[in-house]
Amino acid sequence: MKKFQVIGIGNAMVDVLARVDDAFLVENGVEKGIMTLIDTARAAELYSHMGPAREVSGGSAANTIAGLAALGARTAYIGKVKDDQLGAIFAHDMRAQGAGYDTPLAPKTHAAETGRCMVMVSPDSERSMNTYLGVSEFLAPDDIDAAQMAEAEWLYLEGYRFDGPDSQAAFAKAIDACKGAGGKVSVTLSDPFCVNRHREAFRTLIHDHIDLLFCNEHELKALYETDDLDAAIVRARKDVPMLACTVGAKGAHATSGGQDYHDPATNAAVVDVTGAGDLFAAGFLYGVVSGRDPLTCLRMGNHAAGEVISHIGARPEADLKALFGAHGLL
Amino acid sequence: MKKFQVIGIGNAMVDVLARVDDAFLVENGVEKGIMTLIDTARAAELYSHMGPAREVSGGSAANTIAGLAALGARTAYIGKVKDDQLGAIFAHDMRAQGAGYDTPLAPKTHAAETGRCMVMVSPDSERSMNTYLGVSEFLAPDDIDAAQMAEAEWLYLEGYRFDGPDSQAAFAKAIDACKGAGGKVSVTLSDPFCVNRHREAFRTLIHDHIDLLFCNEHELKALYETDDLDAAIVRARKDVPMLACTVGAKGAHATSGGQDYHDPATNAAVVDVTGAGDLFAAGFLYGVVSGRDPLTCLRMGNHAAGEVISHIGARPEADLKALFGAHGLL
Description:
Strand content of chain A: 15-25%
Oligomer: homodimer
Order of helices and strands of chain A: EEHEHEHEHEEHEHEHHEHHEEEHHH
Number of domains of chain A: 1
Number of helices of chain A: 13
Radius of gyration of chain A: 18 Å
CATH superfamily of chain A: Ribokinase
Strand order of the largest sheet of chain A: 5-1-8-9-10-11-12-13
């Protein structure tokens, strides 16, 4: 038995969550529903216009690993924060969840701070994210311990981190070590704009190394440059042994072993969609590492996503294990 | 018309909120339901044992002023944070609420950090608070602008800050300036243990200067060293022109002009009682500065408290004005 069932690698950051109306998004030039990278000056300007907020640890792959740890999976997480107050909060929340977090801190003297994501939640529960990456950008091969990667059954790579060449090299190092020891690798496409920025790198990675591809319909269409989801799924089926693709309120599709699967979304009341994709991945991966069939994996993904969209913030608040038990999934 | 309807002075801090079970409180030696002051070492130890948390700006009088500002009152707030990340969060949240916050920051070189309060919420919705005061302890007369105090219809003083001699001197300076210009002064007793620590100072202050006393039943009994709430209220009636005393799930009492008033609590579902007293004071004071009768003040207090106990965190999340309007209070 390997020490870790899943090791995640991604942008470590703290979410700053506030409710806004759509007029605020327009006035402040924030594009609704997507993630936009911003610099320090823009972050300060936008924050000064935002209403009172709350801070909750976030980061896409970190949310997924937190969900897996909450379900009892053996996990670790690699992502860079600084030795500052927000970095301490991020590290605390990962460790307190039992998620396994030991990435070396960027020193106090580093010019950048711990990354943060301003999450603006609209009345329709949609979220618009403006991200100041801070030191999370500086994740590099030195932060990857090859021996640890060899101890992983699965890697879970966050597509957002493709934005940094050093981080792409870190991914390559992790993949080599993990696969060299018989492990498998999954990736999430993270965001359609991120896919557009790095389409060829994603396609090469996926074709050459990926055992399980996570995405939503917009990201998959962007990857294969088509408006036809079915056609994109057919393409993906040739590229990867397993695919898990969310389709918003309609739930999620999976393909595995040449078979197609679908499970509708839960009917949870939606408060804030932040983290829906991250927790879907947590639930689905929990099913995979527990040896469950693809339809059960989908159901686990949809129930974990249903929990996280029922409240503000992208980390689970309810007992996910109890929730899965109540739905006959354990 | 004075520039400010209410200026609050108190411990500026960020709350670190986590759910715990009662066994956690026992194992970690945390006294349930009260506020305990802790040092940096104890704060670090306790935090390392706490589960994943979220951060929301807090501070008792700051919560009250935030509530008043949310209701549209003209407010200012005085309380000390440091030039660090949590200080920036506190200042942002006060300013974003329109609460009026300009207290000079403690410099980056200060040995202490911005204060924080670890709020442990039990399954029964009770909260236990462990507070590391940080730089909020250093509130001193220099932080009080006498000209600003003269522009206040009401001061609202946080009893917790009686723990610092410099802050008591700051209170005296503020009271002199406010009363010298015809303003009135209210104080909240904050906590029965705080009352026990400073009983004589509180009694002298209340007898000599206070126009409106806020407290809960336990604090009032501690002030007058009696187990009989009715007897304590009779004593208070002689000491202050107006009293507002909360009695938990039974709502609140007021005395004014020799008359007694009572209003039952709202039947809000209780999630977290953190901030109940603070928001009761916000609602009650909003009634006072709007020239409403004592029973309406009580109702406003109970509805504001009812909102804040319906969710995690001590700052209002719903639109308090709309809430008051829906209950025919505006």
